[in-house]
Write a structure and sequence with these properties.
10 helices, mainly alpha, single chain
């Protein structure tokens, strides 16, 4: 059964709440250093340097979750309604998003452990897979393809696949070199920027459609 815009608004409100909590909880994985001498700058620098892996996992996971939120927000804003399957897929999507702080903390603490790095990559790849299914279902029932170019759908998939490719490369590299595997995550940002540049006309069309929908609302 199709759900109206009011139901869609409730679904997106719940989604925004889960994203906000997941992004906030991420920072709790980074412990405040304990120093033998609280006034020693040298000890503080040493302690902070030991948290490098946790800072990296925090930043990488924050960027990934924020990117998924941005994509999700736009898709649902451009959709006229949804059905029960969209609600179910969205619930599964949120379950995986809410779970991400755990593998992020795991790889932050055990960044030299290949299993931890692979686990993190697989967790994010699961999010990407469900997001693609959610997009495909929304495209089928959401009625936003009438005024958006086909290239917009390609942009959504290309952006998701670019992140997935980086994560798959990191997972494949982890058994051989965990440091290199974690630093692959840094490439996620330029990958997303490159995809955005390639599909900038489709993004502009999406922005125009959003503005038109807001003015009509």
């Amino acid at each position: 059964m199709a759900q109206d815009r009011h139901s869609l608004g409730r679904l997106t409100a719940l989604t925004d709440g889960v994203f906000a909590i997941a992004l906030t909880v991420l920072v709790l994985q980074i412990p405040v250093p304990r120093l033998a001498d609280s006034g020693s700058a040298r000890q503080m620098r040493t302690a902070l340097s030991r948290l490098e892996g946790q800072f990296l996992s925090y930043a990488a996971t924050f960027v990934i979750i924020a990117a998924f939120w941005q994509q999700h927000r736009r898709l649902f804003h451009l959709s006229a309604w949804h059905d029960e399957w969209v609600g179910r897929l969205n619930s599964l999507f949120l379950l995986l998003i809410a779970f991400l702080p755990f593998p992020s903390a795991l790889v932050g603490r055990y960044g030299s452990n290949a299993a931890a790095v692979v686990f993190f990559n697989l967790a994010v790849l699961a999010v990407a897979a469900v997001f693609v299914l959610l997009w495909l279902r929304l495209r089928h029932v959401g009625h936003f393809t009438d005024y958006l170019p086909i290239a917009y759908g390609r942009w959504v998939l290309a952006r998701t696949l670019a992140v997935s490719a980086a994560l798959a490369a990191s997972a494949a590299l982890a058994p051989f070199d965990t440091d290199a595997a974690t630093y692959v995550w840094i490439g996620i940002v330029p990958l997303m920027l490159a995809v955005n540049l390639r599909y900038r006309k489709a993004i502009a069309s999406a922005n125009a459609a959003e503005d038109e929908g807001d003015s009509e609302g």
